[in-house]
Amino acid sequence: MPASYATHRAQLKAILLAWGMPEANAETTADVLSWADLHGVDSHGMSMIPGYDALRRSGRAKMDARPNIVRETPVSALVDGGGGLGHVPAHFAMTVAIGKAKVVGMAIATVRGSAHFGAAGYYSLMAARQGLIGMSCTSASGIQVAPTFGKQARLGTDPWSFAAPSADGVPFLLDMATTTVAAGRIRNKANEGLPTPDGWVLDAEGQASNDPLVAKQKGGFLTSLGGSPENSSYKGYGLATMVNILASCLSGATLITDPMHTKTPRGMDIGHFFMAIDPAIFRASDDFQNDVAQFLGDLRATTPIDPARPVMVAGDPQWKYAETRMRDGIPVGSGLLTQVRHIAQAAAAPWLLD
Amino acid sequence: MPASYATHRAQLKAILLAWGMPEANAETTADVLSWADLHGVDSHGMSMIPGYDALRRSGRAKMDARPNIVRETPVSALVDGGGGLGHVPAHFAMTVAIGKAKVVGMAIATVRGSAHFGAAGYYSLMAARQGLIGMSCTSASGIQVAPTFGKQARLGTDPWSFAAPSADGVPFLLDMATTTVAAGRIRNKANEGLPTPDGWVLDAEGQASNDPLVAKQKGGFLTSLGGSPENSSYKGYGLATMVNILASCLSGATLITDPMHTKTPRGMDIGHFFMAIDPAIFRASDDFQNDVAQFLGDLRATTPIDPARPVMVAGDPQWKYAETRMRDGIPVGSGLLTQVRHIAQAAAAPWLLD
Positive or negative, the Cα torsion across A115, A173, A28, A31? Predict the structure, then answer.
């Protein structure tokens, strides 16, 4: 039986504490990871634990790192992550951006010296929960995307996220990799022995392929959103470039194209970007949120192709997952569960999941 | 023989003046339109003149409108376009945002009561030319995109643009519709008697189609970037929603889903969003621009699939067009030229193009 959200979260926190993470850091990191699992973003929750364990063991992510502000103005902060995992500095940076935005109307916090921060949407949503617009993005560690017309991996999944508050209490939450699909969906096709649809992957020569093993195991690539030059993959590629300019060039983190990326002395040195905007600098907040609610309601009311599958807006699938999983618990595949149990045992963390 | 850039620009200005546009407004509007034609964005330059003429004749775009700031803070301005075309208020708003960003580090100007503003990239580039990051987006008038899983037009091409300055003087410039392709590319397929590739259009029932006439003439739709649910069209749909929240909900322009959109007493009432960010609030500007130059250079140096077609970054195709057309003149199709000549004659504007 799936564990409850509270137990799932407590298990994550117990492992992080056992890894030597200070209480406050473990609390924040567990909250970000369990939020992802609760909201159906399974790729960014507990499934990250084996990867984080590898980073920790190899000394590439310090467990006791604490972020600090190295430069700031009334509208901005540059945060150094101190070489730890990304969740704590990301949470810290968005908190700073929100605080400043509430005073001056808008603010950006960038982060350098960080690592994987979990689901970008978590941080954008922090702003929306405070009545602000939130934007977040991050550079990636995995380099697996070839630019349009190229046959060499240069970019990652480089996600972009945007959230806005709505008068009905249901925020808009976009959280998207700038690739056509995430690596996990390709892996699922391979596991089922199915070909990948047109537009998902390229082979090592940069040619379109339907082989689900081509991107990871045969030197090929994920495609940028759009999928092919004919279907405007330059747009997904352009968005990924924008993400890296905002997350790495503004903060001074290493460039994803730099041979030293993820190999610097201070850890992964991934960069993040967080922005908060108070709509009240333009209109009464209520007027803004009423328009957002009206607009999203109009979109949801679009005549559906199939009445059984109504039109949604970004975020809606996540709220549905959260409702179900808060009620029924959070499912974890047996393979992952075994891996995480071994990791917990090795760290002498209590085991709470069965 | 194609007219020179200067003559092409002068022709546009002459028509705008003949329409009763004040000198300063005509100067700005002609600059925006001729910039598009110079940079190969043919869909947003002279080809807009017939559409603008129709708006003018029907009284839905005033030629003597002047934008004014209705609300502002040190980091923001809300601009009312006064019911004219969008170029002048857009140029005004980005100028205000740049001015404020130079003082406080970042600023946003939103615009309501506006209309079509030409190419979004023009405004983002204004910021990049001043050493700042620029972002621009706008709501649309044409409603021709069905949300993912829907079969009813709710959204437009809803473009997003981002520009960043680079130490080598060649800015990054992304300017993209959030649809898979623009309507013009579908029209070209129809003109050639060719089917549209998979992922470009949907029929009136929301099913994938390869009929280039389906979207405009048979009740069908353009697709959101991604092209199909399987290829993540929810991402293009989500970006379009973001664009409308920023451009319309923040400014208070009518929602694209509102039955009164483009039918309000004060004109089209389209909304725009412009942001400028000074990288110097995070790092020395030179360090930022050096990293951008390095990153874009790394991307251009990606091993190409075909050595004859090197990897580019967003903006590169436009700079190439501008170089060629500044040298060889700006080609205008004979059909468009005839239309514009009639419009010039009807307005008693001088004719300079042949």
Answer: negative
List the single residue in A with minimal CA-CA distance to B74: A104
Gap from B258 CA to chain A (nearest CA, Å): 8
Per-residue pLDDT, B230: 96
Q: CA B174, CA B172: separation in Å to the nearest integer?
A: 7
- The answer to whether the Cβ–Cβ distance between A241 and B147 falls below 8 Å is no
Cβ contact A235–B244 (<8 Å): no
Q: Is the distance from CB of B252 to CB of B246 less than 8 angstroms?
A: no
Q: Are strands B76-80 and A201-202 parallel, antiparallel or unpaired?
A: unpaired
The predicted complex's ipTM stands at 0.98
AA identity, residue B215: A
| Assigned superfamily of A184-222 | Hypothetical oxidoreductase yiak; domain 3 (3.30.60.50)
Mean pLDDT, rounded, for A149-169:
97
Say yes or no for a CB contact (<8 Å) between A162 and B242: yes
Per-residue pLDDT tens for A124-135?
999 999 999 999
Average confidence (pLDDT) over B12-36:
98
Assess whether the region B1-58+331-354 and the region B184-222 belong to the same CATH fold: no
CA distance A353 to chain B (A): 34
* Amino acid at residue number A341: R
pLDDT at B266: 66
pLDDT digits (tens, 9 = 90+) for B267-287: 899 999 999 999 999 999 999
Question: Which residue in chain B has the smallest CA separation from A110?
Answer: B282
Q: Residue B241 is nearest to which of A149, A152, A299, comparing CB atoms?
A: A299
Average pLDDT over residues B230-248: 98
What's the one-letter identity of residue A138? T
pLDDT bracket for residue B157 (50, 70, 90): very high
Spatial strand order of the sheet with B160-164 comes to B68-73, B76-80, B106-114, B270-277, B133-138, B160-164, B172-176
Interface test with B, best of A222, A298, A299 (most B CBs within 10 A): A299
> Which CATH fold would you assign to the domain B1-58+331-354?
Hypothetical Oxidoreductase Yiak; Chain: A, domain 1 (1.10.1530)
Do B255 and A108 count as a contact with CB atoms less than 8 A apart?
no
Segment A226-240 shows an average pLDDT of 97
Nearest CB neighbour to A231, from listed B180, B279, B311? B180
CATH 1.10.1530.10 at A1-58+327-354, yes or no: yes
Cα diameter, chain A? 55
Reported as a pLDDT band with limits 50, 70 and 90, residue A65 is very high
Domain ranges of chain B: 1-58+331-354, 65-180+223-314, 184-222
Inter-chain CB proximity A73 and B310 less than 8 Å: no
Verify whether the Cβ–Cβ distance B75 to A257 is below 8 Å: no
Alpha carbon distance B70, B348 (integer Å):
36
CATH T-level topology, domain A64-177+252-277: Ribosomal Protein S8; Chain: A, domain 1 (3.30.1370)
Q: B149–A244: do the CB atoms touch at under 8 Å? A: no
Top-tier CATH class for B65-180+223-314: alpha beta
